[in-house]
Each structure stands twice: as C-alpha cells, then as structure tokens.
Amino acid sequence: ESRPTLELASVEPRRSESRPTLELDSRLAHTSAPQHRMLLSFAPFRALATSLLGLGSPSTVQVVGDAYLDIIAKIDELPQWDGDTAIRSPIETVAGGSALNTAVQLSALCRTRRQRDQPRPFRRCVLHSRVGSDLYGELVAAKTREAGVTLSARREGGQGVCICLSGRRDRAFVSFKGSVADLSEADLDVGRLLAPGTSHLHFSAYYDCSGLQPAVPRLMARAKAERGASVSIVPQTDATGAWEGGLLELLPHTDVLLCNQREAASIAGVAIAGRRATWYEISEAVRRLHARGAPLVVVTLGPDGAVAATEQQWWFQPNQERAVKDTTGCGDAFAAGFLFGWCGSRDVQRGLVYGCACGAAAVGITGGSEPLSATSVNACMRRNEGVQRAREVRTPRTAAAGASAEAEGEAFFSEENLSDGRVCAEADEDEDEDDDWSAADD
User: Of 147, 215, 342, 441, whose CB neighbour count within 10 A is largest?
Assistant: First the structure.
C-alpha cells in the first residue's frame, strides 16, 4: 500500500523468553521513514539508551487498580441451588481483574510500535496493585510477568479471587475481594507512579478498590500538576448498589470516563427500564455526566460497539458480531484499545476504532489476561471497517431546531442501524472519500 494503516504490526511475546522482543512492521517499508532502524529488544536497554542519550524518560501509562485470580467456568445457563451443572469446557484459572487485564493488553499493544509520529506516544505500561502473599497471589504475579507486564505491587494478605460464570451473551461473578479491597495508597510506590515520563494515569475498578478511593483525588491532582498527565477512570459495578464513593466529585478532574451502559446510567442516576438501555436513557445519562463535569464520556454497547461524547460532539463505532468464546475481559480490552488510540493523539475516533477492535478480539480468547495478537486485532478492525467507518456526528442537543433529542437519537441508535452498522446522520459534505481510518495513520 502507498500509505500505512492503523493495523498493528504482528509482534507477540516469545514464550521461551522472560521479555518480548520487537520486530519491524514490513508494511512500513514504503513510507518515508528510514528503512534501516536499530530496535532495542529489551526494556532495560531502551531505558539505558534513553538515559545515556539524553532523550528523556520513556512516556508511560500508569494503570492502578485490581488484580484478581479468575476461575472461569463457561456455562449456558446459571446453575440452580441444590444442583450439579455439568459443562463441556474445562474450568480455567487465569490472572484477571480490570486493571491487570487492561495493563496486559496495553503492554501488548505497545509492543506493536503503532504510535510512531503521534504527538504524545507512550512506550511503557506499568501496573500498580496489591497481590496476596498466598499461593493464589504467587500465581497472579507469575502470570502477570509471563504476559510481559511490568508489575509494581505489595505482597500481603489473601489474594482476591473471582469465580467467573461466562455465558454466550453475559457473565456473572462471585468474588472474594481480599487484596483488592485492601489496596490502599500505602501499597503504592508513589515515586514510581509519578515518575518522570508519566503521561497518563488510569484507574480501573474504582468501586472495587474501596480502600484506594480516598487517595484517588490526591493522586490525580499530583499527576496533573507534577507530570501534566491525563487521567481516565473505569468505575465498574458498585456491588453495594449505592454508586457513591466520591466518583461524581472526581469527574471535573477526569479526562475520560469509560463505562458500559448500566454503569453510566447508574452513576448518573438514570433508571433503565429493560435489560439494555435505550438511546434516550444513554443520552440522558451522558448529559447528566457532562453536567457534573465529565469532559469526555465513553460508553460501550456490548456487541453493537461504542459511543463517545463531549458536550459538543458524538462519535459512534459499530462492531461486527463474531463467535463468542468468552466475554470475560472484553470491556478491559476495549479500555486498553481506546487508551492506546487516544492517549498519543487525543483522537476520539482513533480510540474507538482500536477499542472496538480489541474488544471484539477479546471474545475469541478465554479470560482477559491473554495478550491479544496483532493478527486478531487487525482482523476485527477490518471486519468493523466493513460494517461502517467510525465518524464524527452531531450531538442531538445541537441538531436543527425542532428535532427532539429522543427522536433523532432513536433514529441514530435504532436496532436496525446497530445491527447492520449504518449511521443515520449526514456525513460532512466536504468529507474526503479516501480519508478513512484504515489509511489515516501508521
């Protein structure tokens, strides 16, 4: 191709080595970049060269939050009391947790080196958490290292364990919080968390990590003041049902809020009538979150894709449905993909493209902590491109006078349009037909 695409270089960890190596993407051979580049294979050498050559600290995304041991059972129906439900697939044990899964996928994406020429590229991802000092904790630490993630974690107490009942369309959890609930500021190496080069601070599973909540405002403020870092939060479900914990007060200081439909509605105080939110319910939830100070709200729509909104603009990226192996970790993969696309460019559309591709690829693996291959992400990206290119659309609140937000929104997010990916909004008249996301960047 004459121009490189958003597709990822096919780079995966070598299982026989403790750290992955980097390879060149052959598709870049026709670009203006030098054809002969010396790539440093291991992170310590990159850091040493960075220091010796005076190039500054490598830009880093710091992920803070939960690290679980996930025990996954794939089921068709929820089991009944006083019964024994037989399943066809073996029960699997993997490292998990929203923060851990997100860090795994971000680290894998970083190894593809697809952020070249972005204004704010990042090169590293570090996971900050607390891991149990028991056998389960040792399994989590070992599996995290095996996935190629840099882990900064205190080892103490009982490891948080989550039993995941994974169905074809949904999932349920039974959790012993343990080390996750005990996670606090005292467990964090704050000097490392706010080290030179920190460009983004991501908090995962805000409600799960109740012991960390009092420190979050202070850490956010320091990251912004000392490092000029951007901040994102994934709230996840509040098991207490209160949906409090100071999250609303954090929204004016958060650059990106990432959540699913029910989380967005619950945080905003919008009741959902059915199993899935309607457009009006999503629109009202986003409006209220904007009113509380959230500048950018990203809402996942399950197999239908995702939307993102500022007060001025809405974006929509649909997904092409694919066979589901396990839904565990799909939202975490989406968050990793969105941050990978958005952090280096501040391009919401780019973030949605990567997020939906990673989320779709994640349903093809078991658990959320198996690093996604570049091949699978690229395949999902191409499938999604076949549905509908992501595009910027007008928010209903800035539509022509006389058109109700609910009517315009229902047309935009109708079941028909979500299923086949057609967007009921006029494209910009000056839109360049060649300027699609598959050929817009490296």
Answer: 342
Residue with tokens 């994934």: 234
Contacts of 72-80 with C-beta under 8 Å, sequence gap 24+, read 72/164, 72/166, 72/326, 72/328, 72/366, 72/367, 73/163, 73/164, 73/165, 73/166, 74/166, 74/167, 74/326, 74/366, 75/165, 75/166, 75/167, 76/167, 76/168, 77/167, 78/165, 78/172, 79/165
- The kind and range of the H/E element at 281 are helix 279-291
Contact in structure between 39 and 33 (CB atoms under 8 Å) = no
* Mean pLDDT of each 10-residue bin along the chain, 442 residues long: 54 38 28 30 43 58 96 88 91 93 95 73 92 96 92 96 85 90 96 96 96 97 97 95 94 98 96 88 97 98 94 93 84 96 92 95 88 92 71 41 43 42 29 31 36
Contact 219, 249 (CB under 8 A): no
**Token couple for 325:** 């192996």
- Say if pTM beats, i.e. exceeds, 0.85: no
Q: Which two structure tokens, joined as six digits, stand for 298? A: 């990203």
What the block records as the tokens of 263 is: 């989380």
